[in-house]
Design goal:
heterodimer; A: alpha+beta; Glutaredoxin; 2 domains; six-stranded mixed β-sheet; 10 helices; 12% strand; B: mainly alpha; de novo design (two linked rop proteins); two-stranded antiparallel ribbon
Chain lengths: 233, 151
């Protein structure tokens, strides 16, 4: 083939490649514009129940309850942990109903990431929701929609869908703040290890009758937690 | 063909920019492998946000790894002055440039965070795309030329 013929053939192939590349990029953009990235196709359930459970209880950051409550219960948990979900659904509701709502105690949620690599961004997402006063809604709603442990379900779309469901108003700010809270997740994880915890959920308590923040471990029942709160008052 | 830069100069520029690209992509890949995100300048958190997003991986592989492969192929294409290298380099840079356009769209409209290293790579890909396009349109079909260091 002559030089001119080869040149013409190559330029025709290049033009075809450019056409194909433009088409692929456009298709990718169109697909992404209408799907997962914005969390729009991730179904989140239980938002109404969570709103009802937490209605009327003050939230500041990740602390649920009256800031002046004499006893602070600190929960160290991993949002991907199924035991934490069970605890949140079976044991904490009575504490919230009986001792948080009446101002005896407040509960602080601290991340203790032990499950997998998505636990860190999930924890930071909860803290970013807390910055908008929806931290506990985020945690409770995450648990209600928790997937199989460390299966990769807690991706950006899921985290965003939970944020929307939890009532985070400024999603754009929530997105930006998520990365800023990563360090805090790592700090509370270290705090849990320094307290001697090696599993989730673990609790610590601070009150007028405790010597600073005292580790409780994992109480067996709501009754045990209620007793610990009474003793700390 | 007189209006085009010499192919030797084009190949040298492509080799230099591809080497820079390998450096950027390798840095991002090393940080990601260590569980970290590349550090943005001026305290920006955009790099961490983008690195932790689902768009940072394709089929479970960090896109920086694909970047290293792409830049390495572009570097290799600069060492040969034949039609395979001209056309192959153009196809590789077309893929890289196209993905850079997509990633920039994603950063602005989906993740809403800008990773300065990704922008740096996108700028390199854009310049490399222009250089490879000039090389292909100017020298496609030409006889094999000398290596860059002898051009």
């Amino acid at each position: 083939m002559s030089e001119r013929g080869r040149r013409t053939q190559l330029l025709q192939l290049a033009a075809g490649a450019v056409f194909l590349a433009v088409a692929v990029v456009l298709v990718l953009i169109v697909i992404n514009a209408s799907s997962s990235g914005d969390g729009g196709d991730t179904k989140i359930e239980g938002a109404a129940e969570v709103n009802q459970q937490l209605a009327g209880i003050p939230q500041r950051g990740m602390v649920l309850g009256d800031p002046a409550a004499p006893v602070e219960l600190v929960e160290f948990a991993d949002l991907q942990c199924p035991f934490c979900k069970a605890f949140a659904e079976e044991i904490l509701p009575s504490i919230i109903e009986n001792q948080v709502k009446n101002g005896e105690a407040k509960i602080a949620f601290h991340n203790f990431t032990i499950i997998g690599e998505q636990s860190l961004p999930a924890g930071a997402a909860a803290l970013a929701a807390g910055a908008q006063g929806r931290g506990w809604n985020y945690v409770e709603l995450f648990y209600r929609n928790q997937g199989t442990e460390d299966s990769g379900y807690a991706d950006d779309a899921f985290l965003k869908a939970v944020a929307k469901g939890a009532g985070v108003k400024n999603i754009s700010r929530w997105k930006k703040q998520r990365a800023e809270f990563t360090a805090e997740v790592e700090e509370t994880t270290e705090e849990a290890q320094q307290l001697g915890f090696d599993g989730t959920p673990s609790f610590a308590i601070k009150g007028p009758n405790t010597d600073g923040l005292e580790p409780l471990g994992t109480p067996d029942s709501a009754g045990d937690l209620e007793s610990a709160i009474e003793e700390a008052r | 063909m007189r209006s085009y830069p010499s192919e030797g100069n084009l190949r040298r520029a492509i080799a230099f920019l591809a080497a820079l690209g390998i450096g950027i992509a390798t840095y991002i890949a090393i940080e990601a492998a260590g569980g970290d995100a590349p550090r943005c300048l001026a305290g920006s958190t955009g790099c961490a946000t983008v690195a932790k997003s689902s768009y940072s991986h394709v089929a479970g592989v960090n896109i920086a790894v694909f970047g290293i492969i792409g830049y390495a192929l572009l570097l290799a294409s600069a060492f040969f002055a034949n039609d395979l290298a001209r056309f192959g380099g153009f196809v590789v840079v077309l893929g890289g440039f196209g993905y850079s356009v997509f990633l920039t769209y994603v950063e602005i409209f989906k993740i809403e965070a800008i990773c300065q290293w990704c922008v740096g790579s996108a700028v390199l890909m854009t310049i490399l795309f222009a250089l490879n396009a000039i090389r292909l349109t100017g020298y496609a079909g030409a006889e094999a030329g000398p290596l860059p260091d002898r051009a």
